[in-house]
Amino acid sequence: MFKVAIVGAGSAVFSLRIISDFTKILEFKDVEICLMDIDESRLNSTYILANKLNEEMGAKLKFKTTTNLEEAIDGARFVINTAMAGGHDYLEKVRKIGEKWGYYRGIDSQEFNMVSDYYTISNFNQLDLFLKVARLVEEKGEKDAWLLQAANPVFEGTTLILRNVPINMVGFCHGHYGVHRLAEVIGLDISKLDWQVAGVNHGIWLNRFLYDGKDGYKVIDEWIGNNVYEPKHPFDDQLSLAAIDMYKFYGQMPIGDTVRNSSWKYNYDLETKKKWYGKFGGADSQIGWKWYQNNIKEITETINKLANFVSMNPNIKLLDYNTYKDYMNNEIFKEEIESIINPKKFSGEQHVPFIDSIVNNKKQRFVVNILNNGAIEGIDNDVAVEIPAWVDSSGIHPEQIMPKLSERVIKYYLKPRIMRMEMALEAFTKGDINVLKELLFRDPRTRSEEQVEGVLNEIMNLPENAKMREYYKR
Amino acid sequence: MFKVAIVGAGSAVFSLRIISDFTKILEFKDVEICLMDIDESRLNSTYILANKLNEEMGAKLKFKTTTNLEEAIDGARFVINTAMAGGHDYLEKVRKIGEKWGYYRGIDSQEFNMVSDYYTISNFNQLDLFLKVARLVEEKGEKDAWLLQAANPVFEGTTLILRNVPINMVGFCHGHYGVHRLAEVIGLDISKLDWQVAGVNHGIWLNRFLYDGKDGYKVIDEWIGNNVYEPKHPFDDQLSLAAIDMYKFYGQMPIGDTVRNSSWKYNYDLETKKKWYGKFGGADSQIGWKWYQNNIKEITETINKLANFVSMNPNIKLLDYNTYKDYMNNEIFKEEIESIINPKKFSGEQHVPFIDSIVNNKKQRFVVNILNNGAIEGIDNDVAVEIPAWVDSSGIHPEQIMPKLSERVIKYYLKPRIMRMEMALEAFTKGDINVLKELLFRDPRTRSEEQVEGVLNEIMNLPENAKMREYYKR
């Protein structure tokens, strides 16, 4: 039928979500899915579980695996890129160097960009991979092939690719589900909401929030007046004091990861983070991030064990949870697998429904990252924005953003965030290390030239940054 | 003929420059000049010397003095505003409070706005005075009266007034003379230069620099390759290492006060300042600013003594320097007075030549602060920019900015500077203290909420800030 490539398919949870979504759409039951990863062992786990799932769901998806990027993309109509160059280990290594030089949470944690795996300064290999994948889509993909970007930094990546490579491309994120979380906490029925969010990835704001046709912000205000939210886990921050403080200043509610992407006011140190994000200090504190890392580690281990179990016991049924529940010692993965095997539930990842809209001309609503081209007033046309859009076989049709984003969101939040994106991309595209240095000279944690030179040198001297080092030394 | 009001005329050197310029333009010999200041003693000194100068220069200027602002502006065709609400004492008092709370050089010293008497955060009374003067010009001035703004902050002031009061208004500064200083140091004849500067006040850049029709930047580059400049005084920074470093990053030369308005990279502390600005640490170090303050003090004292001497000895000739040179123990004032009494030399202040162009339709070139209205691409129309313009009786005609400002100047320097202007003006026009707080939360010297609350409270509790306090507490 057509070929889909998943780049970074060793990320098994993400891949299984995508594959499970494919099995649940009638028209897609025999799509060819090429799983690509450089980690063969993780790739193999994904492959085993994917086949099992396919078989049990009665789908006829065809899987291939490869460690070769070109081979994966060759002839693909859709390429989903979820790969992180260097993985989480690289991020932690670089964060550690940053902290050694006086940058709490690492040099890539910046004003309005504090999400702990959203690196823009030291992430040369990731930006390089973004472009490499995009160029391969241009050269090797099917005519009018689509690149669906899932890996961070989505904002920088989408802007970089769409400015430089003439392909169909869209960036996806989960951030807008914060609207559902918000509704849930304040007790509103999602089905009665008329909402819009707009901004840039990890910097989106609730510009429209109607409940049953009436101003839903009144319900938010009332809730805020009567409640103080205690987070259930570090990422549970949609109604944290930080979110509410941002809402009060900017005049619109920050949604999803935007709450994490605030100024240093909420992030000076762990104590400050706890004050604003609750007892865990939010997702991007040493506590919250450790929790997240442990989860990832456990999930990966659980998946490997499960894949192993399945290959040793080929008659087991994934759809019969009781037969292998002993392996599910991880609560989050348990929820995950239950969702994956539920034939009536989609994963929430937008990729497969998006492909469904494009291929089968089913008009559906998404929140997409695409170049602005006038969608948000006051933002340059060639900057990737995150906005709601309707998609069908003729492509992506952005909604009119109405009402507008507040002046403060545009002028005081999005513009400085966009400037940092521009600096990161200029450094990368021109190979000028001075722009990265300038970014750090404007960092409130910087106290001297030596600090800037020192931290960048140490990061560039990591063995995995040989290409970055050479590139910036030209 | 017509009436000119000088608001803040107790600033004797500035007033004498203006008056002396009037005496040197044939058509202006009988203009009526109303000197206004709230400091009667300083006003009187100006008045005595003004009359003496007028008489000796053979002019027939008519002087009046008043401490009443409305009276000064009533019927004026041109109002020159050089008044600083609270004077230098206020600035130093506020700086001291800032330093007590951990803000080296005070809270108003901000990235790209480090000039030590250019307050935007704590300067409520000055912004308030700007508007008051502008509204009086609208109500009481002659039809089509002009307001010529000389007092800082010119950028915020010009933008504020031109956005809110429908009058003719222009802001003036000396910064562009940095081009002459640059030419002098690197050995170029000013008369052979074809130059342009553009940007915002105290943030202007040498976008055009042709010498004898050829690229003058080559001469700059050669000079830089062979010289390291040692400043003769703290303000002598046009070829400081800071200026050169900025030039290398931004791709165009910062001109005049722009060199002082850099990032914290050059300003972390005195040691850093000395490294980049030479032995005095630049104008805005504790050394440089002390030097400037001492100069102001000495000049003021010298002027008062001279005025006293003149009133006791009415037959003395100001034009005969020998008769009172003993009073001129201040080297800078000596130069100043020599320039003032030189019948062939204009002061360099643009105000009187500008009035000459408007009234007498003499087409001349100025560097003016006016709303952008498309002059600089990428900058909003309603932001005051500083650009070269030709002026005649039909008004101000901006030059086309060619070549353009560099992308880095626009994106990484002007835009963040403009954002801070917008924040200062929004706080002021809406009476929202939270915007000033947000400015400080983004300040690299801020480490806690308590620090922000503490420093603002202490400043607002100064007796002279009663109006500010009430305004922000509404």
TrEMBL record, chains A, B:
GO terms for biological process: carbohydrate metabolic process. It comes from the Bacteria. Residues 197-446 form the Glycosyl hydrolase family 4 C-terminal domain. Binds 1 NAD(+) per subunit. GO terms for molecular function: hydrolase activity, hydrolyzing O-glycosyl compounds; metal ion binding; oxidoreductase activity, acting on the CH-OH group of donors, NAD or NADP as acceptor. Substrate binds at residue 152. The record marks 111 as: Increases basicity of active site Tyr. Its cofactor is Mn(2+); NAD(+). Keywords: Carbohydrate metabolism, Cobalt, Glycosidase, Hydrolase, Iron, Manganese, Metal-binding, NAD, Nickel. Mn(2+) binds at residues 173, 202. Belongs to the glycosyl hydrolase 4 family. This is Alpha-glucosidase. It comes from Thermosipho africanus (strain TCF52B).
